[in-house]
Specification:
Blueprint lengths: L2 H4 L1 E2 L10 H11 L3 E7 L2 E9 H9 L8 H4 L13 H11 L3 E5 L5 E6 H4 L1
Antiparallel strand pairs: 1-5, 2-3, 4-5
Length: 120
């Protein structure tokens, strides 16, 4: 089984300039705890991820009244390819200690996301 067989296709994304409150509302409406961060609205090139935990720890806990995704996102995110074996994606999740891995195409653009629940 390949990543493309189990991934959620075309996940919603945000940019570094997106207000954190907007990202949180998007997480709520999409019923997800994570959003890929892309370099611009015209590009889906992955540059990071933002989670509900990132928002809680880096924005809410610090008492910030306004912040952008750039202030809370994680960078240096590992990704997988659509044709990667699902077992390899699981190994990557384990080694990175994450529950979700973005799936990118050859140009680095987000095409999907695989969560632990997708594999189970």
């Amino acid at each position: 089984m390949k990543a493309k067989d189990i991934m959620t296709k075309d996940p919603r994304v945000v940019t570094p300039e997106t207000p954190v409150q907007e990202a949180a509302r998007l997480m709520q409406s999409e019923d997800t705890g994570v959003l890929p961060v892309v370099e611009s609205s015209a590009s889906r090139r992955l540059i990071g991820m933002i989670t509900d935990r990132d928002i809680t720890i880096r924005v809410v806990a610090e008492g910030r009244s306004s912040a952008s995704v750039r202030d809370a996102m994680s960078t240096g995110v590992r990704s997988a390819r659509p044709d990667d074996d699902a077992k390899d994606v699981m190994k990557l999740m384990a080694s990175e200690q994450v529950r979700r891995i973005p799936i990118v195409d050859d140009s680095g653009s987000v095409v999907g996301i695989v969560a632990q629940a997708d594999i189970v």
